[in-house]
Amino acid sequence: MTSTPDSTLIAAHDLALAALKEITADDAIGAPQGHRVEADGVITLLFQNRMRGYPGWLWAVSVTRVDGSEPTVLETELIPDDGALLAPEWVPWAVRLADYHAQQAVTSADEDLDDQDSDDDSDDDSDDEFDDGGSAILHSGDVDGVDIDELDDSDELDDSDELDESDDSDSDAEAEDADAEDADAEDDDR
Length: 190
Hints:
This protein is an alpha+beta fold. It has a domain at 7-80. It is 41% helix and 17% strand. It is built from four helices and four strands. The protein has helices at 7-10, 13-21, 93-121, 154-189; strands at residues 29-37, 43-49, 57-64, 72-80. It has a four-stranded antiparallel beta sheet, covered by helices on one side. It is elongated and about 125 Å long. It comes from Microbacterium endophyticum. InterPro entries: DUF3027 (IPR021391). It holds the Pfam family DUF3027. Residues 106-190 are annotated as: Disordered.
């Protein structure tokens, strides 16, 4: 003997949604997807799942009521719908690779169009800042449009040359002192 489902339980969507909002975000809950009649007067209300990573799964809220009282929630859970646990149809590698290349070509074409649009929208006065007709390439080390790679390095070289010369004169003086000490030592030995 089959019992008739309780229409009050079937209509308890607000109660079921409130229970689901206690365990998940509002945007993870989709439209109602029907209901299932369970044993002992329990109705499971089903809702579409919108969480990424769970395609084909449903939110399930089991509700019941005892002897004419208000409906109450027994359980909330995420369950797989028919076919949710089956792997998608196999696609040969050559087909997947061709699809990938086609998508890359579309993406590249879109980027080229975007680059052309941004070049057309650029201000022509901005090229006047550079002495070489706007072909200067700036990088993170450039300051206020000055290419640090083109700075005059002669000052640095002069300083380093002076350091090298002073190092040489210091080492020459040390060598002369050492020679003088050697000569004094030889004189003492005689």
